[in-house]
Amino acid sequence: MTTDLLILQTLLVGLVSVLMAVMISIIDGIVNNYGDVVVDVNGKKQMTVKGGTKLLGTLADQGIFLPSACGGRGSCGACKCQVESDVGPHLPTETPYLTDKEIKDNVRLACQVKVKADIKVHIPEELFNIRKMECVVEKIVELTYDIKEVLVRMPAGTELNYVSGQYGQFEVPKYGDIKEPTARAYSFSSNPQMKEHVEFLIRLVPGGAVTTYVHKFLKEGQKINVIAPVGDFNVKDTDASMICVAGGSGMAPMKSIFNDRIARGVINDRPIWYFFGARTTKDMFYLDWLWELDAKYSNFHFVPALSEPGPDEDWKGPVGLITTVLDEYLQTKIPLTDVKEGYLCGSPGMLDACMVVMKKNKMPEERIFFDKFA
């Protein structure tokens, strides 16, 4: 085969590929061109939008923000709303996050529903308080090798009303291979009394779109969007002993809860047991502050534990998985007669393991509270 023939074949293959791509694009535009559709929210607000996008993003574009801990990837189950129109059967990506009653009531995950025609949805009224704010990064502190404390200043005149335990969606701009602004959920580590600022603890997750940006590119003085307040994790108004367990950046809501209770003068009103688990001493932080609380308040008990301390580490505290330490304390050191409530924040695996330990020690599931970020 001559060189000229090879060149001609290569050109023909390239031309065919280009034509096929153009045809696919044209067909996609025709088939998936849903035109303008009307989204009716709670029968009170009707919005005309371009069809073809997911309901979660469609609503966000209109300033209506549903909770979404995973940024719309379908892995948290937070963006639930009731769809009153026929949009087809529930998808396999939805059903693991829905109860039988929710499925019967046609509750859907907004990130999995594509808006193809006029649609009616019902959203809890309290979600209309969620808003997007352009904030300024005021301070970044490196707490550990993989956790940064990020303090952002809210827009002038803005007062964000939230309760300790809630979270915000931290949005970063497009960069590198990330082709659009991307948000993920992080619990507030600030307490509600900090009126001009909100604070987050953001741990680096390998491959994480938002955490990679925060740890490699985010700068003080930079503008950033925060969507808040979100979530229903909060301390219940009871006299029960608070059994709090966290690991890594799960420290965030606990810091908010404890400082909120100090600010309101109720830190010593009920027993608080705070179990914090880490692998080694380099994963520990805020220790001076927590030991100070332990010494100052008779009802506050701090129990840090390391699962894998190195031979050269000067560690005199409990050693083992935090669930093992929790189990031991529930059986031997925390009065069995105490009414207890569980407050958890950490990885899904840690939360599930803590639930098992707590239920084994006679803590009813309805008294165990958490936000599970996937």
Q: How would the blueprint of this fold be written?
A:
Elements: H1 3-31, E1 36-41, E2 45-50, H2 55-61, E3 80-83, H3 100-104, E4 107-109, E5 119-122, E6 131-142, E7 147-153, E8 167-172, E9 182-187, E10 197-203, H4 209-216, E11 223-230, E12 241-247, H5 251-263, E13 272-278, H6 287-296, E14 300-306, H7 322-332, E15 340-345, H8 348-360, E16 368-370
Parallel strand pairs: 1-5, 12-13, 12-15, 13-14, 15-16
Antiparallel strand pairs: 1-2, 3-4, 3-5, 6-7, 6-11, 7-10, 8-9, 8-11
Give the quaternary arrangement of the chains.
Answer: single chain
| Mean residue pLDDT | 91
CATH class of the largest domain: Alpha Beta
Total number of beta strands: 16
Query: Uncertain spans, ≥5 residues at pLDDT below 50?
Result: 24-31
CATH architecture of the largest domain: 3-Layer(aba) Sandwich
- Give the overall form: globular
Query: Helix and strand succession?
Result: HEEHEHEEEEEEEHEEHEHEHEHE
Classify the fold: give the CATH topology of the largest domain: Rossmann fold
Number of distinct helices: 8
- The CATH superfamily name of the largest domain is Nucleotide-binding domain of ferredoxin-NADP reductase (FNR) module
Strand order of the largest sheet: 9-8-11-6-7-10
User: Based on helices, strands and strand pairing, what is the structural class?
Assistant: alpha/beta
Helix content: 25-40%
Beta-strand content estimate: 25-35%
Number of domains: 3
State the distance separating the first and last CA atoms. Answer: 57 Å
Radius of gyration: 25 Å
The main sheet comes to: 6 strands, antiparallel
